[in-house]
Amino acid sequence: VYTSFTFQGADTNAAAGITAARNHTQFDVAPDGSYELVIGPGASGRNGVPLDAKTVSVTTRHYFENATSA
Questions:
Q1: How many distinct helices (H) and strands (E) make up the chain?
Q2: What is the pTM of this model?
Q3: E strands of the chain, at which residues?
Q4: Of 18, 20, 21, 25, which has the fewest Cβ atoms less than 10 A away?
Q5: Are strands 18-23 and 38-40 parallel, antiparallel or unpaired?
Q6: Per-residue pLDDT tens for 3-34?
């Protein structure tokens, strides 16, 4: 499974509007597949995503690469 989170600011230019991004290789995932991200100002650590005041939305993507999903 591929999972990603892209955080965007109000700027409508796609690349310039990204304020943070993480995919499943950049945070810890438990053996059962669960995870927790801590987001916001001051967030830190492997599962922390520090955000600034410009961030207004998040887009998530989840791709199942097996013939059947979990």
A1: 0, 5
A2: 0.77
A3: 2-9, 18-23, 38-40, 48-50, 55-63
A4: 25
A5: unpaired
A6: 999 999 887 666 668 899 999 999 999 999 89
